[in-house]
Amino acid sequence: MLQVVKQAQGGVPDAVTRAVVDELAARRIEQYPADIVELAKQCVIDFIAVTLAGTRESGAQAVAEELLDGRDGVGPVTLIGLAQRASALDAALINGMAAHALDYDDVSLPMSAHASVVILPALLALAEKRKSSGLQVLESFVAGYEAGARIGMYMAPTHYDSGFHGTGTIGTFAAAAACSHLMRLDADRTERAIGIAAAQAAGIRSMFGTDCKPLHAGKGAFNGLFAALLAARGFTSATGSVECANGFAATHAGARDGAEAFASPPGGFFLRQNLFKYHAACYMTHAAANAIAQTMNSHALSPDAVERIVVTADQSLNSVCNIADPDTGLGMKFSLRTVAALAMLGRDTSALSSFTDGAAGEPDIARAREKIEVELADIRPITRTGIRLIATDGRAIEAEHDSGKPETDLGVQRARLQGKFRALAGEVLGADRADQLLAQIDTLDRQPDMSVAMRFASAS
Predict the structure, then answer these.
(1) For residues 362 and 349, what is the distance between their CA atoms, to the nearest angstrom?
(2) pTM of the model
(3) Alpha carbons 187 and 440: distance in angstroms, whole number
(4) Are strands 306-314 and 384-391 parallel, antiparallel or unpaired?
(5) 378-423 tens-digit pLDDT
């Protein structure tokens, strides 16, 4: 297990940014346990799947159309799910926007962010441009993920609680770290890249439920890659940009209690805490959906047999996913009442068709939503949600679920992600092409040139 060096009293490094950089530079795939390599590949599987499906969303299409307007569609990097190609920077933005457009991508609690949809668009674009190997991509993805998690933990919890969106902010650092690692920048230039990332990192939670939320992912990928590319050219920035006076932590509501951030994470890697989505909605709605679905099934209840359901969740969800009566498919994803209603109705919340503008206006869903009450309290962990279901026969049934626990059986997780991949990718590429692409990802650690593997992800 790699250890952060030069720790001061209480386990916090004297120079936070440099400690992250030193740990980042030391990461080598030969030191990674087999499950970490497997988890990294699973992140790629999930990322490609949601990106392909996300290309059909209007916000993703608007970004792609604007950036490709007047261009010849020829470039060194694949636009996932599209026939055109682009520069590495434009591809990072377009692919990152599409990846988060459905809000169906994986979650990193240490970063308070959607990690893969920021790191991988930047890293894969750079790798394809440089013709890097799949093994190098996996190595740098893990390195960037761990670096982003350190910074995310250093900023927690006040950064996110103050309204910043970690995908756009912390994700920018993670993308810059991963790209710097792939290019093997020395420590000084990597620290400059972190500083350039700090100068660009942005994202606010008031944008949840709009196209700007996935734009945070696309811009984070663009800005992280841009930071590493500029640092490689000798571009300068302040050192110690995370912790210095007027630096990122000081200006972006960082808690700066770094003892937990620089302790060894459970199992030695933050990546082991990564969480994948199987409901196509905000992750903080998943615990309620699971608790309700399990209760309905175990007690053989029909929707008509339910008088009301009280959902008790942490008060922080009020500003994350508590849109009371959404009128768009995107808004449905950030409505705890709506996702709970869908679960009560037995709707397939893994299906994209459950979250459309048309579904938002369905009378059956509106009536079911009237049976859902949301109570907010101080609950830890915030991923835990309780329900109290009152049946029409007078029974009161209580249950709870914690969606913050990662799957321990990676074989089971792989099978679920492959099913998700085939469902999403097959709609865009067709079943045969989707299986070919999945085979490429499954053998990523043996792929000598990412530019060859990525061709399977295009629409051409």
Answers:
(1) 15
(2) 0.94
(3) 33
(4) antiparallel
(5) 999 999 999 999 999 999 999 999 999 999 999 999 999 999 999 9
